[in-house]
Amino acid sequence: MSEPILEMRRVSKSFFSIKALRDVDLTVYAGEIHALMGENGAGKSTLMKILSGAYRPDPGSEIRIDGQPVQISGPLGGRAAGIAIIYQELSLAPNLSVAENIYLGRETSRGGLLAREAMQAGAGPILARLGADFTPQTQVANLSMGQRQLVEIARALHARSRILIMDEPTTALSAGESERLFALIRQLRAEGLAIIYISHRMDEVYALGDRVTVLRDGTLVGSLDKPDIRADTIVRMMVGRDVSSFYKKEHDPSARPGAPVLAAVDIADNSRVKGCSLTVHAGEVVGLAGLVGAGRTELAHLIIGAAPMTSGHVEIEGRAVSIRTPGEALDAGIAYLTEDRKALGLFLDMSCLDNINLAVLGRDAKFGGILDRDKARDRAKRAFATLGIRAANVGVPAGGLSGGNQQKVLLSRLLAIGPKILILDEPTRGVDVGAKSEIYSIIDNLAKSGTAVLVISSDLPEIIGICDRVVVMRAGHIAGQIRRDATSPLSQEEIMALATGTEQLDA
Amino acid sequence: MPDNGASAKAAPAAPGLAAAQETKRQRTRAIVRAVGMLPVLLLLCIGFHVLSDGRFFTGQNIGIVVQQSAVNTVLAAGMTFVILTGGIDLSVGSILAASAMAGLIVSKFADFGPLWLPVAVLTGAVFGILNGALIALLRLLPFIVTLGSLTAVRGAARLLGADTTVFNPSVPYAFIGNGALTLIPGIVSIPWLWVIALLVILVSWLVLKRTVLGVHIYAVGGNESAARLAGIKVWAVLIFVYGVSGLLAGLGGAMQAARLYAANGLQLGQSYELDAITAVILGGTSFVGGIGSIWGTLVGALIIAVLSNGLILIGVSDVWQYVIKGLVIIGAVALDRYRLQGSART
């Protein structure tokens, strides 16, 4: 290959006495998609923040662009060096138009007045090149997540960036939007851009990556070229050990079938969920699969009373129950783990201790409302020990923890209730490999002890790895279900066939 | 794979170090939060003492300061509950006036005279619960609801006395307004107003830090959607905090009435809500909710009282007092922000 466009040599970064990065090398060529992988906290974000100019590397670090040493200071420095980052949380102003966002911070003016027409005319060709189906005048608030990402990319291209960093770009996208994004990324590669692609998802790295670089604990583990990219190799590099028993499934309800605990009967909300029924038995793990937007989360919200159902009802242990609020669902023994732990699950400013105990404070309280602080502390400490939550102590705010540890804190809150029924919505999203494996073993143990578990997940290997039965949703309906038995294991193809249906849905 | 054993051994060491660092940072942050504006308060006191040739730290002057801060402390305690949930209560000054009017009117009936105190407090609680119900059940913005009741309740206060001043020179329990609790006869006595204010702070602290309801208040302020999904009755928490704010405004009205033997629906409690909000903010409570402490509020209320008193002591003219007070408030909060900057969560 030709000269590298970006070379990072012996890049280190310390925060006080902690080394977040130690002598990391990274070489990226023009016209390649370079996947960057590693567990949460491995140093990927730190490395990218150095490239964007948000952090200044330690002395001795060297960054070369086109062979020339550069100093990147501040966000403008990154932009001047031709580097653009597309963040997980999109950084667009939703109240402005597409053109205004593309030109944000570099507005064209004529005689001190904003030259709106010129900006719109300038944005047009870039959007056309990206195949956008909206105009520069469109207000960003009216765009889907996929379209917004396109605007971000357009902004990067407009700034003549040649190195594009994408940080988990598909987390908020539907399957169709992701496919279109992949096509676009390949097009940009063909145009000679260098793309650094950060992702936790192995299938994306397979599909896109020309090379993979793996970080662990702030150090470089190594790089793999395309022919060497294999899931088990990458996982071993990320975790530093063999993860042969990655999915854990020892419980076996077929040996000792449990009674039906949760039954949703013909539930509908008149928009996203159209008459869905499903049953979960004691000691069983049922997967709820489907494309993004199929109505899985909405169905869960109806079951736990977070949204009003217009028809249908819920039965618990054979008795019809009325659940109108999440509080009533908890009283009935249903605990729900949200897919959006930061917005809907955790209290980031509150301690892990309070986060873990929140749902059982009332049950533990003395004299009808005085906190039992010893009990709370004991419970939090026990949760830290049994779930392997890594934080300085139970008193630190939950917001400071890594994704996997946050998820375990949230899970501890639900487990503290001792629910009969546990609904887990994307339990391993944004969670690193090690914590994933631990969460699977927690789910397995719950099923062994007789809890009925419903797992909503977009990660098919995960569903196949841990579930006894899979219910598949498509466009608000139950499209079908697949049972695991000794002769035929669950298959990814079967699930996808049900999820997409014969008539290909446009997501 | 390069050297698995070594990296496996090295790995736990780094998080351990990070954890220790984190605990230390946590502790510093907690201390900064807890101490908050206390150094500013002490500096102000010492400064005024020096500038006024030693007239600040006298028994009599301290008595005046705490007496003046008492009503605002009580209002600010209620405001702390509200702001912790991410809300605001602009109506406390008006509720204070209406409660004082209702109380004094009842006190003039010979038969139920002594009942005036609970009547004043309950009047406040009723207005507060109305605020809370509008906010929690109709999902209206707290700013707008309480801006409306700021005006409406002020009108109600004037209606109560037919727009006149109500006097009662023989109001029962007048001692709470002007008397003092004697601890050591002839040497140490504490104004009853201040005793009430301290009790309010103490009870607030107990509720916020030692009860389930307290945790729920912080939770609603920290993340309302998560609180709802966690099964917390958010509407009940909201009605409670506005109810408390109203009730304490009612108590403030009673304290004011007992002190003045009179109440006027038009003038009493004008713009008291601003001093209460200022005290809470000076106390380090986050304006978006979820973070803060009642002790900070107490310090904030004292800073306001010390400023007023000290500026008069050193002979600053009334006009300049306003300017200086405003600047000190902005400066103090800016200082607080600056000190907390390094510890902000990433």
TrEMBL record, chain A:
Coiled-coil stretches noted in the UniProt entry, renumbered to this chain: none
Compartments where located: Cell membrane
Gene3D superfamilies from the UniProt entry: P-loop containing nucleotide triphosphate hydrolases
Topology of this chain in the membrane: Peripheral membrane protein
Positions of the ABC transporter domain: 6-242, 241-500
Protein name in UniProt: D-xylose ABC transporter ATP-binding protein
Pfam family, one: ABC_tran
SMART domains: AAA
Function: Involved in beta-(1-->2)glucan export. Transmembrane domains (TMD) form a pore in the inner membrane and the ATP-binding domain (NBD) is responsible for energy generation.
Main localization of the protein described in the UniProt heading: membrane
GO cellular component entries: plasma membrane
Family statement drawn from the similarity comment of this UniProt entry: Belongs to the ABC transporter superfamily.
Organism domain of life: Bacteria
Keyword Cell membrane: yes
InterPro entries with a match to the protein in the record: AAA+_ATPase (IPR003593), ABC_carbohydrate_import_ATPase (IPR050107), ABC_transporter-like_ATP-bd (IPR003439), ABC_transporter-like_CS (IPR017871), P-loop_NTPase (IPR027417)
Keywords, comma-separated and alphabetical: ATP-binding, Cell membrane, Membrane, Nucleotide-binding, Repeat, Sugar transport, Translocase, Transport
GO function terms (MF aspect): ATP binding; ATP hydrolysis activity
From TrEMBL, chain B:
Gene Ontology annotations for the cellular component aspect, listed alphabetically: plasma membrane
Subcellular location: Cell membrane
Transmembrane segments: 30-50, 116-138, 183-208, 234-255, 276-307
GO MF entries: transmembrane transporter activity
Segments of this protein annotated with the region Disordered: 1-21
Main location: membrane
Keyword set includes Membrane: yes
Compositional bias annotation for Low complexity: 1-20
Protein name: Ribose ABC transporter permease
Originating organism: Bradyrhizobium betae
